[in-house]
Amino acid sequence: MSTQWIQVYSAANNLEAHSLKGMLESVCIAVRLTGESLGSAVGELPANAVEVGLWVEPECIAQVGRLLQDYEQAEYRDWICTQCNETNEGQFEICWQCGCEKP
Ligand SMILES: [Zn+2]
Questions:
Q1: Terminus-to-terminus CA distance in the chain, angstroms?
Q2: Is 88 inside any structural domain?
Q3: Which of 4, 7, 17, 30 has the fewest beta carbons closer than 10 A?
Q4: Higher pLDDT among residues 21 and 47, named by residue
Q5: How far is the CA of 91 from the centre of ligand 1 (A)?
């Protein structure tokens, strides 16, 4: 390995790791995952049994940092209900006004 990769994130499980990997790859950033191989045999381990490291090349680090920041904030950002246009706080999964799900 000629390039020294840097770990930028530790995902709680394979699912999160792969969704982040997909997000970064969609903007042409090469991503490596570590830790997931332990759970590679399907059904052998629960998906959340191991933390998965996300690694990128050093030249991408600034861009990746911004993307990850957006990712983490997105979960807590206020959202507007598509049904009734009510503003809801980010931690709520359902509109308090009409019960519609977070888009
Ligand atoms: Zn609503």
A1: 42
A2: no
A3: 4
A4: 21
A5: 15
C-alpha 89 to ligand 1 mean position (Å): 12
Report whether 61 contacts 69 (CB < 8 A): no
Distance 93 CA to ligand 1 centre (A): 11
User: Does 103 map to a domain?
Assistant: no
For 12, the domain range is 6-77
Instruction: Report residue 68 as tokens.
Output: 């990850």
- CATH number, position 55: 3.30.70
The string of pLDDT tens digits covering residues 30-72 is 999 988 655 445 555 555 556 889 999 999 999 999 999 888 8
The count of domains in the chain is 1
* 56 contacts 46 by C-beta, under 8 angstroms: no
Going from the Cα of 80 to the center of ligand 1, the distance in angstroms, rounded, reads: 8
More confident residue, 89 or 22: 22
